Amino acid sequence: MGTSSGQSDVRDEQGEAGKPAGHGGPATRARPAPVPAPTGELTPLAAPRLPGALLPWGWAAALCLLYATVAVRRHLLLRTTGYDLGIFEQAVRAYAHLRAPVVPLRGDGFNLLGDHFHPLLAVLAPLYRLWPSPLCLLLAQSALLALAVVPLARWAARVLGPRSAHVVAFGYGASWGIASAAAFDFHEVALAVPLLAFALEALGRRRWGRAVAWAAPLLLVKEDLGLTLAAVGAYIAWRGGRDTPEGGTHPRRLGLLTLAAGVLGSLVEIKVLLPAFNPAGGYAHGGNLGEGAHSSLLATLAFAPLDALRPDVKAMTLVLVFAPSALLALRSPLSLIAVPTLAWRMLSQNGFHWGTAFHYSAILMPVVFAGLIDSLARWRHSRHPLGARHVRASLVTVLAVTVVMLPSFPLAQLAQRATWRTTPHIEAARALLARIPDGVTVAASNRLAPQLTARCEVVVFPTFPVGGRLYEYDRELPRPTAEWIVYDREPPEAWPYPSGAWPYPAPEQDAQLVAAQRKYGYEVVARRDGITLLHRTPPRLGLMRAARL
User: Fold this and answer.
1) How many CA atoms within 13 Å lie on the side-chain side of 507?
2) Which is deepest, 366, 486, 525, 540, by most CB within 10 Å?
3) pLDDT at residue 301 above 60?
């Protein structure tokens, strides 16, 4: 029976904790039998009362508010971007109006299912139809990231106790991988984070069918996540092999089927579906996993183990991924589910994938904390004399690591004065954006684009990408065709980007702005604080005005 500290002894099948059934005198007390290898889930602590059952949901509500505050303030301060918030808003906006997700920001007539395969985004369409705003996506992402704490905290409370569950919930909620995702626009991976968290809880409780049911939709979130589904299947085939259910599919068979479905699903999406939707054909991000500096595919495979650790930023990221668990997650086989994501990131030729910024580590945080719970649960329910002390010391270390790392990542922005201050530059941008009518076409700087995507058709100024091809910056830029141009010459610094121009160097962007006026007939409507608003009368409308004159 449990104690208030969550360190209660577990009642075993022989009798009360620590005492065998029958006579308990010193002369007759039997020696404890060795603990057998577990064949089912670990014996839980006493069932939580109603307030304890609400603990995970309380944390989810608090974290949702925290993430939403960061995300909304960033948007109001012009720190969100067309790449990626604007892109995803255009896709969800199309779904909300029952259209294919054609995204002008990604290219003329570009179907976003040809960039990454994420049809599950359509589940957000009804919400966006009710509230057509980029804030709708930002709040949805905040809720999804926060929802993942529910299965993790619930599992921790069940096997470690409520105090431990608070530490796990805080550690997950303040982890740098989640913070980085919550503070950088919107991304489809937000849908995957709670799905994987619920699947991991089911794996920890040896509910194999439930784990597969939660993990299967990962195939509809992003093409690489089929490999994560395959990892879930491999875990079930390995750890569930000893289970012999009375009926239904044997765990090993279920695991192998899931593994095959995950690998096959990713292959079909990358080799068939993505090229079919991509106007240029092929996989838009295939170059990231090319041969790189090596002369052949064989050499690439041979040097892969070394390439996964160099340059040094890769090794640092690998350590930081598991640091929120004080590295204890590495003691759990559940940590192997992180391998597919870590593998493609470390072997990618795109340097953005190697570090700790952006959203790429969000999917790893549920794995890390599931591994932490799993490893501590085995100590908590062992008969080792230092088991309970080890669990307490480990949780204190996790808490300390979380607090130490917190100031280095985006949640610390809430403590910065600049987060709560509206600068003259922001006021100038809002004033100029307000002069653009609804429903028109606009070419906007990257930071200004998501301020307009809810009410205008927006592309990036200067034109990017050309022909829908990413990572090609040295091509001749076509003439602008939008009715309006709004250009911010000196966008302020906004994590994770430094201040400065994108996607082209500032001199080239300035030259394009001059060309718009001198060669293509755009006229200056207003200039304020480095922001320029241009307008061009459409040719047909110009002829009508001339006829009236």
Assistant:
1) 0
2) 366
3) no
Among 55-64, 132-141, 385-394, 501-510, the least confident range: 385-394
Based on the structure, what is the number of domains in the chain? 2
Residue 286's SS3 state is: helix
Q: Are 450 and 442 in contact (CB under 8 A)?
A: no
Query: Which token pair is 122?
Result: 């359509």
For the segment 451-467, the average pLDDT, to the nearest whole number, is: 94
Amino acid at 74: R
List CB contacts of 76: < 8 A, sequence separation 6 or more: 422, 426
Place of tokens 């044997």: 250
The answer to whether 229 touches 218, Cβ cutoff 8 Å, is: yes
532 and 458 together in one domain: yes
What is the pTM (predicted TM-score) of this model?
0.86
Give CA–CA dist 375/330, Å, rounded: 8
Which pLDDT band holds residue 296 (cuts at 50, 70, 90)? low
Q: What average pLDDT does the segment 315-330 reach?
A: 95
Question: Whole-angstrom Cα distance, residue 510 to residue 190?
Answer: 36
Q: Strands 484-488 and 441-444, how do they pair?
A: parallel
Residue 103: alpha-carbon gap to chain centroid: 21
From 389, 415, 441, the end of a domain falls on 415
Give the β-pairing of 484-488 and 531-535.
antiparallel
8 Å CB contact between 193 and 120? no
pLDDT value for 245: 57
β-strand partners of 106: none
β 531-535/523-528 pair status: antiparallel
- Residue 429 main-chain phi, psi, to 5 deg: -65, -45
Nearest partner of 276 among 288, 284, 286, judged by Cα: 284
Place of tokens 């930023």: 313
277 and 394 co-located in one domain: yes
The verdict on residue 385 lying in a domain is yes
Q: Which domain holds residue 497?
A: 424-536
Contact 80, 74 (CB under 8 A): yes
Q: What is the pLDDT of residues 31-61, one digit of tens each?
A: 444 444 444 455 555 545 546 678 999 999 9
Q: Which of 366, 382, 415 is the last residue of a domain?
A: 415
> HSE on the CB side for 301, CA within 13 Å?
3
